[in-house]
Amino acid sequence: xxxxxxxxxxxxxxxxxxxxxxxxxxxxxxxxxxxxxxxxxxxxxxxxxxxxxxxxxxxxxxxxxxxxxxxxxxxxxxxxxxxxxxxxxxxxxxxxxxxxxxxxxxxxxxxxxxxxxxxxxxxxxxxxxxxxxxxxxxxxxxxxxxxxxxxxxxxxxxxxxxxxxxxxxxxxxxxxxxxxxxxxxxxxxxxxxxxxxxxxxxxxxxxxxxxxxxxxxxxxxxxxxxxxxxxxxxxxxxxxxxxxxxxxxxxxxxxxxxxxxxxxxxxxxxxxxxxxxxxxxxxxxxxxxxxxxxxxxxxxxxxxxxxxxxxxxxxxx
Length: 317
Fold this sequence. Notes:
Layout: E1 2-6, H1 11-22, E2 26-31, H2 36-40, H3 45-49, E3 52-55, H4 61-71, E4 75-78, H5 84-89, H6 91-112, E5 116-120, E6 136-137, H7 148-167, E7 170-176, E8 178-180, H8 191-200, E9 205-207, E10 213-218, H9 219-231, E11 241-244, E12 247-250, H10 251-261, E13 267-269, E14 279-280, H11 283-289, H12 297-312
């Protein structure tokens, strides 16, 4: 099988590419500005040599369609897009990239006869529906996005369902919770870099949201869920989008664990809570996709720190 990953040289995309390569598949990474530094942190030199990297813009429907035809793509995994802060700073660009760009992916798949598109949604698409009293939000809960990024992701889910109903395109949205791991450098949840990645490099840090609890997913689990969504039999896909969960932990608990592993690093907590405070039900992804996280938060944190320190030539933990 040949998979095309938009955003394939980014943080999550690099891990998805590695997962697919390990499974014996061919991978095309499609990016506006390929991030070779990021993907080199995840793939070996031999693995990277097996990847085809194509540069292009998802806002260019004709150009993207040509790449899909030229590469004879079987399945698209769409991870490219502007992150939350960038959406707030440039709303027209956010609409062009995150909404129109995603529609271009669906349209190119329809034109090329590609059966399935797995695409990145977000828990921001759900938001925090205040009319629901339950502390855990089920997969099919009504959405109430709190920001532009979430509203556009919500609209992408609507368009994905439209392309599925109208054209029979198998569209699978994945709402990832906060994703962490080696090679993370940016993002709306980049407080995790202060909590984890900087201390792993012996850099003192100040972590916001010290009063919060967050559902956290190790990037290897997020990549595994993505590959499952791309390969599971179509008759198992009962939902247009799935919440991909990990494990809920308080920021304080995570800080304390990192401090145990790295007692020589000063990690301060600032008070504050996160915008999205409710929990999420991952049972639909478990039942339909066969996804369950393999890493607990503490296991993922320990492996992330070990990998970062090993690459940097620092004493391992």
